[in-house]
Design a protein that fits this description.
The complex is a heterodimer of chains A (453) and B (666). By secondary structure, chain A is mainly alpha-helical. Chain A contains 18 helices and no strands. Chain B folds into three domains: 578 residues, no CATH class; 51 residues; 33 residues. In chain B, 73% of the residues lie in helices and 3% in strands. Chain B has a two-stranded antiparallel ribbon with strand order 1-2. Chain B has a two-stranded antiparallel ribbon with strand order 3-4. The longest helix of chain B is centred in the C-terminal third of the chain and has 49 residues. Chain B starts with 7 loop residues before the first helix and ends with a helix. The chains are: A mainly alpha (453), B mainly alpha (666).
Chain lengths: 453, 666
């Protein structure tokens, strides 16, 4: 019997090698989608019968790497459905998506610096490539900006590893704090934590939406989990005060990120840019879940609720972003004014898009509601002292307030969608992504609570 | 398990409600068909399952309590359920024609089926949670159906005279208003009911009817030890009093006349108001038996006196209002509350007499009689109102010449209501009054007897004015004709049935009464001792005489008169007092509605608009948008500055870390 990990790696590598030769073929993206779906089924089955991907996992809790692989594959399925929009370069997109999935999986499964560096490079290359695929001036410019900033963050990552190797085990606090700060900076760049997010609104907000749908739904998953893994394991090497410093970093950054993203999203005049900023604010919520995980380790309480929260959030975020950005591709001009009335003219697709938005907002019974609920519930754990002022779970409350603010700009989109007007748009080749993603959100939202009963 | 098929009794009407929304045109037929099946299943259920028995399935766990979804089949629920389904079936057939072409008929059929389904669920419920679901279902459906013509355009559908004020409070009610009134008043009673259920759970740890029956001794003892027995009983039955429109909750029923006449028939005869009676009939035997075992029989005295007196008072009060009313449906509405009052009297009297089951059975039997004659009357009234395009009895004079069959049906029902032998209304009302006399509570008995007199009087006042009196010249020009057969037959059958039911009701050693009586109280959750039904000649004589006096005096006073012109001021004031429903509505509005309204609008002005609205819709958005505009300036596309921000961020993190280290290491 072949080791499942080899099957996964082999399939993805072969796909990324073969796909460029089939570029432009109509069936290619559906085939890729089907292959991802089959892999998803295979991985799930293997996990179910207990033959999972264990050999690679080492000392880490495997659930996160399994979740990342699953979410990446679902995101792959969803986004490749609309790759026909990329025309001749669809093969390259499939190839880069496969590499991205592979890199995500490796990043989420390890804390070995060499693996991390290799996977980081692969993920970066795939991201820059996908951002450049539409090959127009804006996309190329964005890709270049992305690559340049990415290069810098790579250096910072390397620097933090160097510090780790030089000073490991030292009781002198400063180098470890510096290392942690650098690590947060590097990963923060990759996933868009404020203030390392500056590239993100440009790339997500102005590039081709199909490329952005891959970037936003797929290319962040690995680094997010890497953050959990590194800090979760890294805690072993830290003393009490250093741990407090680390938690403080995460809490400050999560609040800053969600608030900054929300507030700036609220003033955008372009829907795609709004979605870009909302991506930032969602990273803030995920950081909240991560800081709960780290805090749970520190205070010696059960981490399972926080893990579940993070995983559901990854699912909900990734799937709804894939659908939402694909919908944006239907329009030439993506300002609030120019999508006016789309809900009336293109009822079905726009309805599904509305589901994605409401999911991002966190409306029951969609998956996003449970994601947010679990994050806030886990953040309101009374055993974690820093999250409380007296009896008030301030950390969760700030999150909830931010979530309420986000209603402002999501509902504004709905308002535009169902206004009286006749916009011009075409959703040929995009419908599947939008419809399937929303269907997963609805079904997932209904099934999920049943799973936990 | 073959018994599971009986879940269709309430399941089918519920299903019909949903299907009707999809199939639209077929909605009436689906409804009629499913209610017919429900009736048949109800009637044959004793042959399918043993009686009494419970069919239930695990449903969910709540606070460590296993809740089952189940149906209870015993004498009481089967009799009650069969009557409900049968009368609903006839009303559904009537509605097919009555609501034909109505603009909201899909909605009508949806709620009609849902209403019947909820009522059957309530009747057959095996525990209080399921019962409560049916209970609230009827509240919801009654709200929707009373307010069926919610646009309030057609004044023919209103209740009360437009422009009439009592103590400065308007005395006319539109459909939309009445629907809300019904929901608020009955839900207010439910506060007590739900509190009672909570107390019951706290004390006994069970909510199933069989479980309560098993633990009743312990429940009564522990409630009594805490001094909570009487408060608990009053809270628990508050929902029943509100639902059955007993004083002080009677106001909603009166204005519920804004709904379609078929719905009035359904609410008054088959569903809604009888739910309260059912609840008491269900739990009073359990209570009585438990109290005997616990040795606390005497401590229930206050509660049953309360039920008896409230019932008698409502019976009298509503009958007195009915003699002054001018609207046909309103008279019938008063009559319902009054008749339900008699049922409550019977239930209250049960405690005081040697064999309680007799009085309880009298109430149950009165429910059946009431269902038969009241449904007939309301459906006939619906036909009359449609034909004459007026809800006032004075406008309907001369109806006999055009609508002979309707007149006969109405007469049969009226005789039953008045309590003339051998109609069914006579037997059970007399049995209730006899039981009341045995309690020794003279006030309740006198109120009951005066009520009986007034009952005969008001119904024959209406009958004389509508059918006996000759119409004016306009009548010939009006196109008044007999109701359509689909409408006519249901109420004609019911009119005949109230005669037949009465004829076969009582034979000294048998009859229908004995059949039902033994079925209900020997094959029940609680088997009460039974005795043979006996009527004392003196009481029968008194009852018949009083009813006849009432009947004949109404006939002589109102014959060939359209209106009675009162000369003395005192009488005029009395009539206004009765016409304006003892000013109770006005008092409620002044005491509760207006003051609460003022309080709410003050709250809205100061707190809602002054604080919350200003904060959420004014200050917060302005702050966020302002901040957002400022932050947006950072995003300018210059990569050098991006780098600067990134490095600055990393630096800030380092500084924070350093400061924390310094602070903590000291």
């Amino acid at each position: 019997m072949v080791e499942p990990i080899l099957v996964v790696f082999g399939t993805l590598i072969v796909l990324s090698l073969v796909a460029p030769f089939l570029s432009g073929r109509k069936a290619l993206n559906y085939c890729a989608s089907a292959i991802y779906a089959l892999l998803l089924v295979y991985v799930t089955y293997m996990e179910y019968i207990g033959l999972g991907l264990g050999k690679f996992k080492g000392i880490l809790p495997g659930i996160l790497s399994y979740a990342v692989l699953t979410v990446s594959l679902i995101a792959g399925v969803l986004t490749s459905l609309s790759f026909s929009k990329l025309g001749k370069r669809s093969g390259i997109a499939v190839s880069l998506t496969s590499s991205g999935i592979l890199a995500n999986f490796v990043l989420s499964s390890t804390i070995n610096p060499f693996y991390i560096i290799a996977a980081w490079g692969l993920l970066s290359v795939s991201s820059y490539g996908i951002a450049a695929i539409p090959k127009d001036k804006i996309s190329l410019g964005n890709s270049l900006k992305y690559a340049f900033m990415g290069g810098l963050s790579f250096q910072i990552l390397l620097l933090s590893f160097v510090l780790y190797y030089v000073f490991v085990g030292s009781m002198v606090g400063l180098p470890i704090v510096i290392g942690a700060a650098l690590l947060v900076t590097a990963i923060g760049f990759k996933i868009g934590i404020v203030p390392f997010h500056m590239w993100l609104p440009d790339v997500y907000g102005t590039s081709d939406p199909v490329a952005v749908s891959v970037l936003s739904s797929l290319m962040k998953l690995g680094p997010i989990v890497l953050l959990v893994n590194l800090f979760g394991v890294g805690l072993v090497f830290l003393n009490g005060i250093q741990r407090e410093v680390l938690l403080a970093f995460l809490m400050i950054l999560s609040l800053l990120t969600m608030t900054w993203g929300n507030v700036t999203a609220a003033v955008q005049k372009d829907v795609q840019k709004m979605l870009a900023y909302s991506s930032i604010s969602h990273i803030g919520f995920m950081l909240m879940a991560i800081s709960v995980i780290i805090a749970s380790y520190m205070y010696g309480i059960s981490t399972s609720l926080a893990y579940i929260a993070l995983i559901i959030y990854l699912f909900s975020y990734s799937i709804s972003k894939a659908g939402a950005f694909s919908y944006m591709k239907g329009f030439e001009n993506r300002s609030y004014d120019s999508i006016k009335g789309a809900g009336r003219t293109y009822g079905g697709v726009s309805g599904m898009f509305s589901v994605s938005l409401l999911n991002l907002l966190g409306l029951p019974p969609l998956l996003g509601f449970w994601a947010k609920l679990f994050v806030f519930m886990s953040a309101a754990n009374p055993s974690i002292a820093p999250f409380y002022i007296g009896y008030i779970p301030w950390y969760a409350i700030v999150g909830i307030i931010n979530s309420v603010i986000s209603a402002f700009y999501y509902v504004r989109v709905l308002q535009s969608l169902y206004a009286e007007s006749k916009p011009s748009a075409t959703f040929e080749g995009l419908k599947l992504t939008i419809i399937v993603s929303s269907a997963i959100l609805i079904i997932g939202g209904i099934i999920l609570p049943v799973l936990f009963i | 398990m073959i018994g599971s098929i009986l879940f269709l009794i309430w399941g089918l009407p519920m299903l019909a409600a949903g299907l009707g929304l999809v199939l639209r045109k077929q909605a009436p037929f689906i409804s009629i068909l499913t209610i017919a099946i429900s009736f048949i299943l109800s009637a044959i259920s004793p042959f399918i399952v043993s009686v009494p028995s419970v069919i239930s399935y695990p449903w969910f766990m709540l606070l460590g309590l296993q809740i089952n979804f189940g149906m209870l089949f015993d004498g009481l629920s089967i009799v009650m359920g069969s009557v409900v389904a049968f009368v609903s079936l006839l009303i559904a057939i009537y509605s097919y024609r009555y609501m034909y072409g109505d603009w909201g008929h899909i909605r009508y059929w949806y709620f009609f089926s849902f209403f019947v389904g909820s009522m059957l669920l309530l009747v057959y419920a095996s525990n209080l949670i399921v019962l409560l679901i049916g209970w609230e279902g009827t509240t919801l459906a009654s709200y929707a159906l009373i307010g069926h013509w919610y646009t309030d355009e057609d004044e023919e559908r209103w209740v009360g005279d437009k422009g009439r004020y009592a103590l400065g409070v308007p005395m006319w009610f539109t459909p939309s208003q009445s629907g809300v009134r019904a929901m608020i008043v009955t839900s207010f009673g439910d506060i007590g009911f739900i509190t009672g259920i909570g107390m019951l759970y706290k004390v006994s740890g069970t909510l199933s009817i069989l479980g309560i029956e098993k633990n009743i001794t312990q429940i009564i003892t522990s409630l009594n030890n805490n001094g909570l027995l009487i408060p608990f009983l009053i809270a628990f039955t508050m929902g029943a009093f509100a639902k059955s429109a007993q004083f002080p909750f009677h106001e909603w029923l009166v204005t519920a006349m804004t709904g379609p006449s078929s719905i009035s028939a359904l609410i008054h005869a088959a569903t809604m108001v009888n739910a309260g009676v059912y609840l008491l009939l269900r739990f009073v035997p359990i209570l009585l038996q438990g109290a005997v075992v616990a040795g606390l029989y005497s401590s229930l005295n206050i509660f049953f006196t309360y039920v008896l007196v409230i019932g008698a008072f409502t019976a009298f009060m509503m009958a007195s209002m009915a003699i002054a009313s001018n609207e046909l449906k309103l008279i019938l509405a008063y009559s319902t509350a009054s008749q339900i009052g008699y049922m409550f009297m019977g239930i209250g009297a049960a405690y005081f007499i040697s064999t309680p089951s007799i009085a309880l059975f009298a109430s149950l039997s009165h429910f059946i009689s009431q269902a038969l004659f009241k449904a007939a009357m309301f459906m006939a009234a619906g036909a009359l109102i449609e034909e004459f395009s007026s809800r006032y009895i004075k406008d309907m004079a001369g109806a006999y010449s055009k609508m002979k069959l309707t007149a006969i049906a109405f007469l049969l029902a009226s005789l039953s209501l008045s309590g003339i032998p051998p109609f069914s209304g006579f037997w059970d009302k007399d049995l209730i009054l006899e039981s009341t006399l045995q309690t020794g509570n003279v006030i309740a008995y006198l109120l009951g007897v005066i009520g009986a007199f007034l009952t005969a009087f008001y119904i024959f006042r209406a009958f004389t004015m509508v059918f006996v009196n000759k119409g004016d010249e306009n009548l010939k020009e009006k196109e008044v004709k007999e109701a359509h057969p689909v409408m006519l037959w249901p109420y004609f059958v019911l009119g005949l049935l109230s005669l037949l039911f009465g004829i076969f009701w009582y034979f000294p050693y048998g009859g229908l009464s004995a059949l039902i009586y033994y079925f209900v109280y020997r094959q029940s959750v609680v088997q009460l001792p039974t005795t043979s039904i006996y009527f004392s000649p003196l009481d029968v004589g008194i009852s018949v005489t009083i009813a006849l006096i009432g009947l004949l005096s109404a006939f002589y006073i109102y014959r060939n008169r359209r209106e009675i012109v009162l000369k003395s001021d005192a009488l005029k004031k009395l009539r206004d007092f009765l016409y304006d429903r003892w000013y109770i509505n006005s008092i409620y509005y002044k005491a509760f509605v207006y003051s609460l309204n003022d309080f709410a609008s003050a709250l809205r002005k100061s707190v809602e608009f002054g604080s919350f609205d200003r904060f959420y819709h004014n200050l917060v958005p302005r702050f966020i948008l302002g901040t957002g505009e400022r932050l947006r300036k950072f995003q300018h596309g210059d990569i050098g500055k991006y780098l600067l921000v990134l490095l600055a961020g990393a630096l800030v993190l380092l500084v924070i870390g350093f400061v924390m280290l310094v602070l903590m290491y000291g």
